[in-house]
Amino acid sequence: MDISSDEMKHSSNAGKTLTEEEATRYDRQMRLWGIEAQQRMRNAVILVVRMRGVATEAIKNMVLAGIGKLVIVDAENVAEEDLGCGFFFREEDVGQKRLDVARPRIEGLNPLVNVETITDMTALEGVAFENLIQRVDLVCVTDYDNENLRRINEICRRYGKSFYAGGSYGFFGYIFCDLIEHEYLPPILFGASRDRTAPKEAPRTIKRKATYCPLAKALEFKWTALNKRQTKEVNPALFFGILGLWQYEISHKDLPLDSSSAAEVQTIANSLMSTADVNKQVLREVPIDLIESLSDGAKHEFNPVCAIIGGVLGQDILKALGGRDPPIANFFVFDGSTGGGTVCRLNMS
């Protein structure tokens, strides 16, 4: 498939068209997902809140893919523990603002992407935040507490903005997305022939629609909607272990320091699991060894896990922007001890 300048100029997508420089830089990926999908990415403004390991990986993927503008909000300084997963940071950066040192390195990945940094966290409050939300297309929040995730998600919904959340806890991590009403065009091949010498028929697409729900409603999901096999497949132990961490953080205003808090986190997780009506033939209680691992790693980042969670997060955001393939629907959990990830569909219609 040859991508000509005429095709660039006559793309049906609204907004600014791709320049010759962009067409050259993004040539290979446009062969994969098409010109219109690339142009939607190029016109998108993405807001990322907090910049730790997961966000770092997601930012790299989005910037290299060619989003239009990236806005990052983070007020923290580079700490020594950031050096393991934050590949935009160096030893000499410790003590400086994360965004001050990261911005030129992010821009260096792709000079065609406009990068804006905000180091005042009051930008996430009140009218200032609502104004910020209105000038972006999608919001991605990483490694933040559950109360703020719900608050930001609800504001995004108020203004019709897509919302992603993600984070890691040592060997474990999660991604949640709320795309409100999302349409996508998955490629479907009709009339495939077993005769390899026959002419290949071009893929046809049928527009599909997915209706998402906010985080608050997703967490009210009743697991009786799943049969025994489906419940086993979505790893409910890890899901409720993460919810247990969230509730612990609300109560203590901080995540556990180590496994000494495991018993309390387990009690919370088991209570939440009971309220959600999880099939007791599948899981009677969240295993204590899983809770101990979650509690031990709750405040720590593990580079391979951040790379996986951030990679999946960044690619899913690109899928949502491009409208080519179905994004996560709608809660993904990753278990680094087994190397497996599962997706659970929570209160989506």
In CATH terms, the superfamily of the largest domain is NAD(P)-binding Rossmann-like Domain
**Rg computed from alpha carbons, rounded to a whole number of angstroms:** 21 Å
Please report the total strand number as a whole number. 12
What class, by secondary structure content?
alpha/beta
Could you say what the CATH architecture of the largest domain is?
Answer: 3-Layer(aba) Sandwich
Order of helices and strands: HHHHEHEHEHEHEEEEEEHHHHHHEE
Number of domains: 2
What is the first-to-last residue Cα distance?
37 Å
Strands side by side in the biggest sheet: 3-2-1-4-5-6-11-12
What's the pLDDT, averaged over the residues? 87
Report the top-level CATH class of the largest domain. Answer: Alpha Beta
Q: Low-confidence runs (pLDDT<50, min 5 residues)?
A: 1-14
Strand percentage, roughly? Answer: 15-25%
Q: Compute the number of helices.
A: 14
What composes the largest sheet? 8 strands, mixed
Any idea what the shape is?
A: globular
The proportion of residues forming helix, as a percent range, comes to 40-55%
Remind me, CATH topology of the largest domain?
Answer: Rossmann fold
